[in-house]
């Protein structure tokens, strides 16, 4: 008969070390899985994603970041027009600057900030989001070089968002004019989701799809944004006016006496009604 080996102190200690090691390995695996699951709520450094923090004190008014596509395809002729698309787009943007001029003249006490960004493979701030100045914005528009390169829509959106948080108003808007799909940098859909989440809905996003199917940007509806199509220059001008004057400025002014829900920390629910006496 084979007798079992005696249990020694060395054997007990060996088994105990093995059990502890396995336990630590299981905990480590569990921690790793938690980090993997939460990558959607973390930035590139691994830190938890918090809401955006304004760089200045904020108040009533509206801040608008106009973001225009200056990729190589914008040199092509616009439909029904002998001019390049970027020239047609600049003309349409001139028209909304005139609309803003009229709006500011009628509402001098309502702060309006406007900035201008262009993007191709990279993003360039042509004018910071600051108190509306038609001449400075027109000069910035005219200073843009000829279109060239790829289409970094998502990166441009994030750059515009950063400018809005330096502008000093609760109400913030991104208005993008583009004729193509994203080819460089971050996905515009993921950026839109991140902006919506981290701004708690305070940044509204609008796209004008110029000479491209607007449904390619349907993801904006998931974050309370909006996209409209424009097949030619006349339609582009009409759609820009519809969004800029008919939605952005009208909404901002209509809500001018109230704060967006995310910014109003003093708002408390009304008391329950007093029941009638018998």
Quantity of strands, as a count: 6
- Roughly what fraction of the amino acids lie in strands? 15-25%
The Rg value, from CA coordinates, equals 27 Å
**Main sheet overview:** 6 strands, mixed
Order of neighbouring strands in the sheet with most strands: 3-2-1-4-5-6
Which CATH class is shown? Answer: Alpha Beta
CATH superfamily: von Willebrand factor, type A domain
Output the helix-strand order.
HEHEEHHEHEEH
Q: Work out the helicity level.
A: 25-40%
Structural class of the secondary structure composition? alpha/beta
Instruction: Measure the end-to-end span.
Output: 94 Å
What brief labels describe this structure?
6 strands; 6 helices; alpha/beta; Rossmann fold; 278 residues; globular
Q: Which helices and strands occur, and which strands form pairs?
A:
Blueprint: H1 9-37, E1 59-69, H2 85-106, E2 112-119, E3 123-131, H3 134-142, H4 153-164, E4 169-178, H5 188-198, E5 203-210, E6 226-230, H6 233-254
Parallel strand pairs: 1-2, 1-4, 4-5, 5-6
Antiparallel strand pairs: 2-3
Helix pairs in contact: 2-3, 2-6, 4-5
Structure report:
By secondary structure, the chain is of the alpha/beta class. The chain has a single domain, classed as von Willebrand factor, type A domain (Rossmann fold). The chain contains 6 helices and 6 strands; from the N terminus they run H-E-H-E-E-H-H-E-H-E-E-H. A 6-stranded mixed beta sheet has the order 3-2-1-4-5-6, sandwiched between helices. Strand 4, helix 5 and strand 5 form a beta-alpha-beta unit. Helix 2 runs antiparallel to helix 3, helix 2 packs parallel to helix 6 and helix 4 packs parallel to helix 5. The chain is globular.
């Amino acid at each position: 008969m084979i007798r079992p080996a005696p249990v020694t102190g060395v054997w007990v200690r060996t088994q105990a070390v093995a059990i502890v090691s396995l336990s630590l390995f299981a905990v480590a695996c569990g921690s790793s899985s938690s980090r993997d699951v939460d990558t959607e709520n973390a930035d590139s450094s691994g830190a938890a994603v918090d809401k955006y923090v304004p760089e200045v004190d904020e108040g009533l008014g509206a801040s608008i970041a106009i973001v225009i596509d200056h990729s190589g395809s914008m040199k092509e002729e616009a439909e029904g027009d002998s001019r390049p698309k970027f020239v047609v787009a600049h003309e349409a943007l001139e028209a909304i600057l005139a609309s803003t001029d009229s709006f500011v003249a009628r509402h001098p006490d309502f702060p309006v900030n406007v900035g201008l960004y262009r993007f191709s493979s990279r993003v360039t701030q042509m004018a910071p989001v600051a108190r509306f100045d038609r001449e400075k914005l027109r000069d910035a528009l005219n200073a843009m070089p000829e279109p060239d390169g790829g289409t970094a829509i998502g990166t441009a959106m994030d750059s515009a968002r950063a400018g809005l948080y330096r502008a000093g108003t609760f109400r913030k808007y991104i208005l993008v004019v583009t004729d193509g799909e994203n080819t460089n940098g971050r996905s515009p859909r993921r950026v839109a989701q991140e902006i919506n989440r981290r701004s708690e809905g305070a940044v509204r996003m609008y796209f004008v799809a110029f000479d491209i199917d607007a449904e390619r940007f349907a993801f904006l509806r998931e974050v309370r944004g909006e996209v409209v199509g424009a097949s030619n220059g006349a339609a582009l001008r009409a759609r820009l006016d519809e969004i800029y004057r008919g939605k952005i400025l009208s909404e901002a002014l209509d809500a001018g006496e109230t704060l967006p829900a995310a910014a109003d920390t003093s708002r408390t629910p009304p008391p329950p009604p007093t029941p009638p006496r018998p």
